[in-house]
Amino acid sequence: MTHPGAEGLDDLLARVHREEWARVVATLARRFGDLDVAEDAAAEAFAVAVERWRADGVPPNPGAWLTTTAANKALDRVRRESRRAAKQRQAHMLTDQLAGPPEPTGAVADERLRLLFTCAHPALAMEARVALTLRMVGGLTVGEIAHAFLVPEPTIAQRITRAKAKIRAAGIPWRVPAAADLPARVDGVLTVLYLVFNEGYLASGPGSEPVRADLTGEAIRLIRLVRELLDDDAEATGLLALMLLTEARRTARVSAGGELVTLDQQDRGAWDRELIAEGHALVRERLASGLPPGRYQVLAAINAVHTDAADARDVDWSQVVALYDQLTRLDPSPVVALNRAIAVGALDGPHVAIAQVDALAARLDGYHAFHATRADLLRRLGRSPEARAAYDRAIGLARNSAESAYLTRRRDELGPAQ
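Request: output the structure for the sequence above.
Response:
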C-alpha cells in the first residue's frame, strides 16, 4: 500500500477514474449482462475507494482492486434483488463465473472496445448508441455529452435510460460481436470515438484541464484497433488520420498562461512531426484508392492541408474551401456550414463570410463557436459594438477554460463598451 498526501491522492483518484472506469464497466457488463448493474457497481466501487484509500493507502493494483470491489457490489445487488430460488441460483452461477477463467474474446479482445461495439448494436437508434457509449466507454458525464450534442442534459439522460431499457427489453446479448457483426456497427463506433476525441481536445467538463490527453489518447488507441479489425476500413482510416493530424497540434493549443492558441497563431515547430507524417501517409493512401471519400476522409484531408503549410500564411485556402464544398455534400449540417464560412473568410474576406454566418443564426444560436466566429468577423470589419456583444454571448456559452480566456482577451482588446 502507498500513502500519498491528500492532494496527491485526489490527483491519483482522478487519474485512476479516467483510466479504469471504462474497463471496470466493460468487465461487469459482460459478466452480469446489465448496464445499470455495471454502472452503479462501478460508481459504488469508486466511492469506496475514496474512503478506503485515504485511510488504508492505495493498493498496488488499483484497477484490479476496483474491479473486484465493483464485482462484489454487483453480486450483492443481484442477491438483494433475488427473492426467488431461480434468482438465487443465478447469483451462485455469477459467483462461479467471477472465480472462473475469462470467456473467449472472439473478434474483439479489448474489454472496452468490446463494450463499445456492444453499445453500438443496430437495434438502438444512432443517437442512443452514441450517448450510451460516450457514457459507458468514454466515461463522460451527462453534461459533457449534452454539450457535444448541443442538446439539453435531460434529453441525453433520457436517451441513455431508454437505450438501457431497450437492451433489457429486446434481450440484446452482451456477447462478443462476431466478425460478421462488425461492419453494421462501425458507423456508430466511429461517431462515438470522434466525439470522445473532440471532448478530449476541447474539454467541457467543469474543472477539467483545457485539453484531456487521456481521452484523445484512448480514442486514438481504440480507432487503431477498429481499423485493424475492419481490415483498413476507409472511414476508420480517415478518422485515424484526422485524429493524428489534430493530436499532433495538441501541445501548441494552449499557452503557458492557460489560454487557447488559435491555429494561425500556433508554434508550428512544436507540432509532432511523426504524427503528422503518419496522418499524411494515411490521407495519401485513401486518395490513391480512387474511391469516393467519406466524411472523415475529407476532414482528414482538410487537416492535411493545414499541417502541410510551414506557415499559417501558406495555407491553401482555396483547396480548404473546395474540400468543405465536398464535405457539405456528405454532411449538410450547420456546423459544417459554419466551418466552411470560416475558410471563406480567410479566402475572400470577412465581408463575404459574415453573410454566410448570419444565415446560420437560427440553427446555431446556442453554439459558442458560432458566436465566437461571428465576433471575429465583426471585429475584422470594424463593427466593434456588435463584435463585443457576440464575444459576450460566446463567453457565456463556452465551457472550456482556455477558450473562455482567449475570448475574454479578444473582447477586452476592443476597448471599453460605448
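The mean pLDDT is 87.
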